Predict the structure.
Amino acid sequence: MSVSQLARSIKASPTLKLNETAAKMRERGEPVIHLGGGEPKSKAPLDAVLNCAAQLNTGEVRYAPADGLPALKKAIIRYTEEHYGHAVPPANVVVSSGAKQSIMNLLYAILEPHDEVIFPAPYWVSYPEMVKLAGGVPVVVTPEDGTFQPTVAEIAECVGSATRAVILNSPNNPSGVMYSRDFIAEMVAFCEKRDLWLVMDDLYNRLVFDGQTAPNPYRFAEDRGDASKLVVVQGVSKMYAMTGFRIGWAIANREVCEAMTNIQSHQTSGPVTVSQWAAIGALSGVQTSIETMRLTLENHRNVMVERLQTIPGLRVTKPHGTFYCFPDFSAYGKSSLQLAEFLLDKVRVVVVPGKEFGMEGHLRLSYCGTLKEIMEGLERLKWALDPDAPNEIFIGDRRLVRDWA
Ligand code: GLU
């Protein structure tokens, strides 16, 4: 073996890998429908593009401070005041190359070898691997009642002397479920009481439906200043549809921000300056694109859920936000990987197996594509799974004949 034990213990990101699979199949002319994607298809806000282009035009693209351009931190501070009602000094903000790097830096900064990090299933695919990379041990809590809503008691049961942090992602990738206000309030109090880090991965908290708003963790937190162990992670990827710019940030206490900055200064020197200009444009410009996208996604969610509910045997939990849905397909008697492979092979629909999110039997279906893709993808899926469906369908001009039982 030429690579380390640590490297061998880390899998490729299945979500990113599936994006590549779908792109390659499309290049070959396959009529693929990608219901596995994890990025909105809207364009980046014009203010992001214009600010970036104007700065780029000067031809002066230099190093920025390792923790982010002061102007971007200022925009993040404004955003945090407006959306969380929380005042943050610049020393408590670290900008990174995507929220992924923010979480990774944080784990490097807080974990001792073998420290445990708890997160509920279904969880975002990268959490276990990130914890392992930072020398920690992932501990998964699986909510018992099938609602995807963990309880504080379930989490408390897993807390031991090695527990260092809890990560919560709400609205959740992949279930789309938003954890209740009471749960967030209790978790903030619980982590304060037990002296645990509480990491709120809030990437989807502006993409919430049915007139709801995401609970604000700061509202429930004691004012502990720089003794606080509450960390909020945010980024431009999902809310502004700016995934390729790779800008995320963490808001944390000063000591941990310093540590994260030191770590980052040796890894990347800081996030790409060009992308930071774009993020400044997005955060400081006209904000209408978020609401436009949110409304589109809500409509897509409704269409997807409505259609999924017509498929026999499926258990569908209506997402409160994000652009994912995580139905339970276990009635079909296949593993999530077998089912995902079957759908790709037979009807060219890409989905992500639930196993990758720590929950067998489920598939993650995204509704961030076009309505046409969603409807056609679900039609194909339904046809593939329904033994009573007509024996043939057409995908584009391709005739498909059922060759399976
Ligand atoms: N977060 C997205 C997803 O879950 C993008 C891919 C990734 O970073 O994992 O599909």
Observations:
- The chain has two domains: 5-43+288-401, 46-284.
- Residues 46-284 form a domain with the Aspartate Aminotransferase; domain 2 fold (CATH 3.40.640.10).
- The CA atoms of residues 46 and 282 lie 8 Å apart.
- DSSP finds 14 helices and 14 strands in the chain.
